[in-house]
């Protein structure tokens, strides 16, 4: 039987669909990984991975082996952690989130967690687009908004308010909207937090207004939308998390404050479900504790 390194390498090659990617992830050469997997297949007497010039995919036997091996490896890691002196975490934990959330809210809250677990390598994947979390071996993802997969293992951490923003310079030139319908006469900045669907919802005194808008400027990164608003390119909508610094400095101001905008749920999403490594769960517990006291409008 091969050692745990080989089994872990097999699961990563199968998930990544690449010997080279698994090799880079583990600090090995592609020939080393290829040879180790070939030896594993020889020992088992079956082909686990079908190779081609375009992709590496599990065979039927490989898929079965992967389904059985991943929970075993997770259980072994949990067993090691349960008896580790002082409860200190080690190894690697991978967490995914949007750029704004990571840079502005999560990373600044990790200092004490990193100090408590000096042997733990924290890897943060920043992207505003949806990622294949299983393929990327992400332990936990921070997601804003409704989850696409309602059956997924997740935990709602908090809610944050969506806000409507513009720079003082833009408002001096274009005027300030007084009612939601006024937005239709303004330049709109679309970003990942505001462009889909192309409508913003407002409520007041039991009345709901849905304002359909077409962006005049758009970007696929929330940081870009905030930067565009700060530069005076128009009005945008994002979460209060994503623009806290600009609001405090006065570079941006909120609009239509006598109307309520939607509350956005913040979830911790666990792509591996019950097999999530202890480091991933511990990191989320740390974040939840640091967020206690944050008001819904924050």
State the total count of DSSP E strands: 13
Helix content: 25-40%
Silhouette = elongated
**Overall number of structural domains:** 3
**CATH arch. level architecture of the largest domain:** 3-Layer(aba) Sandwich
> What's the CATH superfamily of the largest domain, by name?
Periplasmic binding protein-like II
**Topology pattern, helix = H, strand = E:** HHHEEHEHHEEEHEEEEHEHEEH
First-residue to last-residue Cα separation: 53 Å
Structural class category: alpha/beta
Query: What count of helical segments does DSSP give?
Result: 10
Q: Measured on Cα atoms, how large is the radius of gyration?
A: 23 Å
CATH class of the largest domain: Alpha Beta
CATH topology-level name of the largest domain: D-Maltodextrin-Binding Protein, domain 2
Task: Describe the SSE topology.
Layout: H1 4-16, H2 19-26, H3 30-44, E1 49-51, E2 56-58, H4 60-83, E3 91-97, H5 99-106, H6 111-116, E4 120-126, E5 140-144, E6 154-166, H7 168-174, E7 189-190, E8 199-204, E9 207-212, E10 217-218, H8 222-230, E11 236-239, H9 244-249, E12 253-254, E13 263-269, H10 278-291
Parallel strand pairs: 3-4, 3-5, 7-10
Antiparallel strand pairs: 1-2, 5-13, 6-11, 6-12, 6-13, 8-9
């Amino acid at each position: 039987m091969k050692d745990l390194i080989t089994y872990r390498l097999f699961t990563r090659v199968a998930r990544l669909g690449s010997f080279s990617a698994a090799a880079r992830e583990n600090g090995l050469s592609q020939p080393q990984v290829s040879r180790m997997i070939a030896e594993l297949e020889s020992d088992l007497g079956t082909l686990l991975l079908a190779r081609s010039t375009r992709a590496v995919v599990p065979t039927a036997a490989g898929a079965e082996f992967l389904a059985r091996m991943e929970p075993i490896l997770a259980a072994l890691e949990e067993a090691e952690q349960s008896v580790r002196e002082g409860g200190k975490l080690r190894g690697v934990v991978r967490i995914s989130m949007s750029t704004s959330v990571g840079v502005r809210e999560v990373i600044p809250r990790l200092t004490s967690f990193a100090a408590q677990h000096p042997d733990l390598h924290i890897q943060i994947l920043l992207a505003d687009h949806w990622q294949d979390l299983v393929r990327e071996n992400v332990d936990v993802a921070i997601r804003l908004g409704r989850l696409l997969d309602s059956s997924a293992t997740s935990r709602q951490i908090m809610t944050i308010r969506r806000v409507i923003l513009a720079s003082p310079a833009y408002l001096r030139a274009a005027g300030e909207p007084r009612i939601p319908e006024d937005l239709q006469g303004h330049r709109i900045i679309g970003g990942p937090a505001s462009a889909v669907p192309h409508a913003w919802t407002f409520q007041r005194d039991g009345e709901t207004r849905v304002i359909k808008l077409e962006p005049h400027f758009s970007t696929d990164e929330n940081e870009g939308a905030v930067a565009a608003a700060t530069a005076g390119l128009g009005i945008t909508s994002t979460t209060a998390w994503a623009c806290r610094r600009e609001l405090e400095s006065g570079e941006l101001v909120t609009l239509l404050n006598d109307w309520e905008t939607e509350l956005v749920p913040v979830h911790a999403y666990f792509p591996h479900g019950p097999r999530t490594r202890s480091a991933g769960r511990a990191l989320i517990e740390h974040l939840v504790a640091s967020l206690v006291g944050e008001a819904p409008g924050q």
